[in-house]
Amino acid sequence: MTDTIWPPDFKDCTDHKYLVLVQSLRGAIRSGQLSIGDKLPPVRELAWELGITPGTVARAYKIGVEEGLLNTTVGRGTFVADGRMDPVWGPEPLVTETQNEDIDLRAVRVPDVGQDAAIRAAMVQVASHGAPYLLCPDAKSDHVARQAIVKWIGPDIAGRVSADDVVLTLGAQSASVISLQCCLHGPAPAVLTEDITFPGVRHACRLLRAEVIGVAMDEHGLRPDRLEDALRRHGGQVLVTSAQAHSPTTTHTPLARRQEIAELARKYNVQIVEDDCYAIACSDVPSYRVLCPDRAWYLGSLTKAVSSALRFGYLVPPEGRAQLARHVAQSNFYGVPQPMLDICAEFILNGPAEDIRRRVVNVIEERVRVAVNILGSWDIRWRADTPFIWLKLPQGWRGSTFVRACDAEGIRIKSADEYALPDGHAPNAVRIALAPELPVADLQAALEKVSTLLANPILGSDN
């Protein structure tokens, strides 16, 4: 079979059929057999003609779109493109802009417990040291900051970790991208994650041209049976998960469930990337890096527990892979700026970082109590140390309609649609952040309006 035959003949095919289909498509476009603007057969029609599954054709078409070979328009079909790739980012930003005229319950922000003065004090202390700021940071100059992260993570959460096991990054999203860059390979990599997940996962996978496969959850997190089914059907190189405190659902995965998932990772040779960004309080449940230290990547940052202004994150790769991750990080941004390294190290080792984390958790616990007292009669999920709640809407409301109804009251919340994967199903639910910048009385008033809306659905909104 040559790669210029379009469509290809799969009678004696031994390679992955979706890759053969993509190779044939490339060759047909290069040779002129297919011209710009030519319409390709619909997925099911071509699958029937070739004797392969519609999923195989859809996967090949998806790769063609990502490479700029094809473009797809809903209602019109799939056409040969001019080779220019569409942007890989989506319309939704990762940073939620403040809307001063509204009650913003969309963005998760850190409570103000004196971070500004404390960080400024750390800056003054670092400046008094007279450290040189001329050369790029390296493994020697960032060693103290890596020691600080070992202290910040705490004993046993990520295994017996030393400074040599830590890679410093520009926040948790940066750590996530670096871990995926270390793990993904081949022309069509696949990443598995919760079917409702933080948008940053989708953004990272788009940037790396990776297919995202959603795995169903229950009250304990990822379902092992659905994970194994996805691995059998789609394969996959990496599982990205937030087992300690999942956004947006607040789900916490208990030890027994984590052990099941770790065993599946070994069985199917999958790497696990655990994003612990929302686990603000220290956990007594070990991370995946403890359960399978040969294949688990543990990451977090100071963003949710201290300050979003400190784009200071960390990654603990599997045993023996820290040097690889460090090289990948250097290829992305050379290194975290030395002044930031010194400020954060001072803040953690000699300053009030741990006390600030404790006070942040106290504020969150207070606001969670407020929310539960007001919305507790509805179907909500919550954790005392997680700065948002997950609200499953009652009959009579749909997510998009409820968001618009809250908007009309000057209250901004997030629908589950914003967390669903592109081809996934969004539950009828919303996430409500607890706005630490608001006076408690204003938060109470906003949540009472939300409760009133829940009790009075708009006629026909569930149709």
Structural class: alpha/beta
What is the name of the CATH topology of the largest domain?
A: Aspartate Aminotransferase, domain 2
CATH top level of the largest domain is Alpha Beta
Q: How many distinct helices? A: 15
CATH architecture label name of the largest domain: 3-Layer(aba) Sandwich
Instruction: Say which CATH homologous superfamily of the largest domain is assigned.
Output: Type I PLP-dependent aspartate aminotransferase-like (Major domain)
Major sheet: 7 strands, mixed
Integer tally of domains:
3
Distance between the termini: 51 Å
Instruction: Work out the radius of gyration.
Output: 24 Å
* Poorly predicted sequence stretches spanning 5 or more consecutive residues: none
| Quantity of strands, as a count | 18
Average pLDDT works out at: 90
Shape: globular
Helix content: 25-40%
For the largest sheet, list the strands in their spatial order: 5-13-12-11-10-6-7
Tell me the fraction of residues in β-strands, as a range. 5-15%
